[in-house]
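Holo model, iron/sulfur cluster. Inputs:
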Amino acid sequence: MKFQTIKTDVLILGSGGAGLFAALHASQANPDLDITIAVKGLLGKSGCTRMVQGGYNVALSPGDSVERHFMDTINGGKWLPDQDMAMRLCQTAVTRVQELENELGCFFDRNDDGSLHHKAFAGQTFDRTVHKGDLTGIEIISRLMEQVRALSVNMMEEHRALALLPSRDGEELAGVLLVDMRSGEFRVVRAKTVLMATGGGPTMYRYHTPSGDKSMDGLAMALRLGLGLRDMEMVQFHPTGLLAGRDTRMTGTVLEEGLRGAGGHLLDGSGERFMLNYDDLGERATRDIVSRAIYAEMRAGRTTPNGGVYIAMSHLGPELVAKKFPGMVKRCADCGFDLAAGRVEVVPTAHYFMGGVVVTADTRTAMPGLFVAGEDAGGAHGANRLGGNGVANSTVFGGIAGDEMALQASDQQHWADFDEAFVEAEIERSLSPFRQAAGDINGIRDRLLDVMWDDVGVLRDADGLSRAQLELTRLKSELHASGLADNNRVFNLSWHDWLNLNSLIEVSEVIAGAALSRENSRGAHYREDYPQVGSLEESYFTVAQSNQEQISVERQPVVFSIVKPGESLI
Amino acid sequence: MLEVRLYLAQRASAAIMAPLVLIHLGVMIYTIQGGVDAAEILERTRGSFFWGANYGLFVIAVSVHAAIGLRNILREWLSLRGIGLAIISWIFFAGLLMAGLRAVAAVVIA
Amino acid sequence: MPQQSSQTILDVVTWIQRHLDAGLSYRFACRVGMCGSCAMMVNGIPRWTCRTHVNKVMRDNSLTIEPLRNLPLIKDLACDMSEFFEKWTDSKGYFQGSTTRHDPVSTLSPNSPQRRVADAATECINCAICYASCDVVNWNRDYLGPAALNRAWSLQNDERDSASAERLSVVAGDAGCHQCHSQQGCATYCPNELNPTASIAGLKRMVAKAYVRGELGAGGKGRQGPESDA
Amino acid sequence: MKPHRQQPLYFAFLLHRLSGLGLALFLPFHFYVLALALEGNAELDQFLHWSASPLVKFAESGLVFLLAIHLFGGLRLLALENLPWSNSHKNYAAMALAGGFFVACGFLLRAF
Ligand SMILES: Cc1cc2nc3c(=O)[nH]c(=O)nc-3n(C[C@H](O)[C@H](O)[C@H](O)COP(=O)(O)OP(=O)(O)OC[C@H]3O[C@@H](n4cnc5c(N)ncnc54)[C@H](O)[C@@H]3O)c2cc1C
Ligand code: HEM
Ligand code: SF4
Ligand code: F3S
Ligand code: FES
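Output:
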């Protein structure tokens, strides 16, 4: 199979907050660098950074401090976060927000006196979330996108990364194999430095929030390269995703946290409130508690017609609801639901992936030349991500990656050689569905979504996880035996569905393996057979690796480099 | 910059014409009853500085205004561009201006 | 094709791709009206398909779904949006600040009239629905279009921005705001209820003022119409 | 007509353009007729006589209609571009059209 070869200094995969910030910073650090952004969708229009609603955590308000933000992050992450990363996150968020405002032109909501408005977000001891209404992501990514599009960077839109290419000697990264989705042609981009910022995205669950282009491709590629992935059992569920039936893409999308905060009630299928049976705070309990409660109700069969629960706001007065949550009311209305006066079916929904590639606080990985930032990188959040720390994470570390890559690419004289045979093999692998008879891709997808939801979801136990592992193995071989109903490689979404499923299944296996390995319950990970938190002092994180198609998971002790359990910086 | 000038010229001429056309419409509706004859018109207009200025201004404004308007239409609907478009617009402008001034002369001066 | 109580146009397209025509090409990402990737012509009107319920647009039990107007087609329902974004850049639709990341965030009242104007035009998701609804875009391929001009207007009202003179001379150029004839398709169909018409009118006023005062630069480096001097 | 054009303010645009075009095409003729006065009142009278026929009167009120809607529509556009934004442009456009009819009918009524 023929492929085109391109050379660049800095290659960036993905154009969310991490990818775009990296491009901006690399270009600012050294305008002479040749920078290329390759992205699966359109530049700045794909990924989840755009979808950020709540806002951006930053210790900027008087009385708040970086230390306090750090402590909230560590506590929220149940002492599993990599403390150097968490500290870097909280420190750099300050400059990053100032950069977003002063250099990129974001305008976050202000108080009447003109100072930044900081709102409260769950799990934090201070109001520190800056935002633009409830559409913060649009403001951030639009401003970023404008800046990057005005630079002279090479844009490879609708180019999907298929494989990270090691150098011939395996000592460093040589480049990336991509396919131009619009033409079906393969391209190898040789680069001195590569940033992987493809944004994770737990879309292998029946209900999920992230954008449709995210399918864990990055983590699957890292796994195949032999890199260690940490905290892979940590999948964050948002308690209230819209439930509108299996056949609509609206299902799973987020209904704002604020609905519960404002006094919304959760009702089971028969219309009874149930949250008070689980927690004294009722609907206002934290995300993980509410998610588990709803999941338990669903398992007990007390569900709505579509198999979830209801959220009801009408007792607050429909006018008030319509006034306070115009965006949500309109969105529900577009889907045919009356949020203000009626009930809307909801379900917990997979929202964010805390796990990711093992990196240092300056975004380097074990593979020289490869940098990872954003949701693809593990460590900053530990067992749980605070609302508002996600976009902070991607913009902070994306910028850092840009700085680091510019340094390295400016110094480095050589481009490493890649192995042609390796490329050929990867191309063959991606083309394999064209050689099989058409299979039931939709059926495989459905089964994947169900098994992950049922057995690797909000509540887990050893039986379920083992069952899931078996099913995932079956699904993998069934997928590999399934071909496509259309043989044209040009903009063939069905082919990309196949490739998405392939990545999702590979990473799902790791999630199940890591979840089985963690024999306690922390943050987003809840084992019914091991409900205890376990000793904080002996906290460990999981690191999964693939050797010859076998996944191994080992536990590594958390290094308390800044604070130990029982201590505090404030 | 050309487009700015054309835009401003067209809007300015429109603003000038608006009251003139209102007057014209009013007078027309007022006088038409029972038919008009040339003598009637000319009696009103001949030697009148008011009507001379009125019509003169209108003719200049409308020539500018309509030529620019026609230029937009030719460009957008017939895809005329460049020098051809400029020539046609100028010819229309000049033709209209001349015909208009001649008409004013006819009803005011002679 | 089975009808469901909750079914968007995007769901219809997806169903067709999954069950009838595996090769069907289209684009979407967020599925909740935030990314502006999924716009198509639905019964001849440009819409965000992920937020358009089938019931709302179905006529006589049939739907016509076509690629977005005014943009080059890639395949089936997916258009090439490059020119849309090039025009965004050409109209200097990006901020140029005068302070840096090491300075504190500006203290600015959210209630000043100017800020309100800037804010009113900011929640654009660059879906190009306005671009597809505007005939001037079709008649004059250089026209910067409603979205880019709307962004420029927002920036012109951002007191922190330091490139307003340059930007003004670009939007006053031969492909700029004066091409707009207030057809108002942009404002009619913008899914976020933005009003590019009002923004463009604002630019026209701003240009007029600058012109009268002799402050208008010489057209900048932006797009020139095909007849820069006629 | 293409569906995206089927909204009131597009009609307003189209009406304004077509009326402007109609006027622009008619105006040279109008000037020509008036210039006939130069050749002596007789010619003009002859013309005006001809123009007293009902058919011509009807056509002329069409022109008055064009002029009136173009005028009112133009005023709407000037207001749109130069006054603070108003959300009532659909109403204004309708009013401009109604005003045009009103003036044209006035003309027609008085002409007969
Ligand atoms: C609905 C929703 C609401 C959220 N709200 C908040 C919030 O309020 N506050 C907060 O802090 N966080 C929030 N988050 C989380 C936040 O959005 C993410 O943490 C963050 O945006 C991730 O940024 P990223 O740059 O890593 O990835 P993304 O922004 O997701 O970008 C990933 C990019 O990679 C591309 N890509 C994927 N695969 C490939 C491939 N194979 N080849 C090439 N490119 C590829 C994608 O197309 C995309 O451009 C929310 C997330 C969701 C889904
Ligand atoms: C009575 C006062 C008038 C006013 C207030 C007026 C106003 C306007 C305005 C504002 C426009 C610009 C429309 C646009 O480009 O968006 C316009 C266009 C135009 N006008 Fe007038 N006009 C008047 C009289 C006339 C007359 C008498 C004629 C013809 C002889 C005329 C012919 C045109 C033409 C041909 C256009 C171009 C239409 C287009 O581009 O869509 N106008 N007018
Ligand atoms: S102005 Fe409205 S229609 Fe146009 S691109 Fe922005 S959001 Fe879309
Ligand atoms: S549709 Fe086009 S003509 Fe102007 S008002 Fe909107 S840009
Ligand atoms: S898919 Fe993002 S706006 Fe429709």
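The longest helix of chain A spans residues 493-517. The longest strand of chain A covers residues 3-13.
Archived with the compound record.
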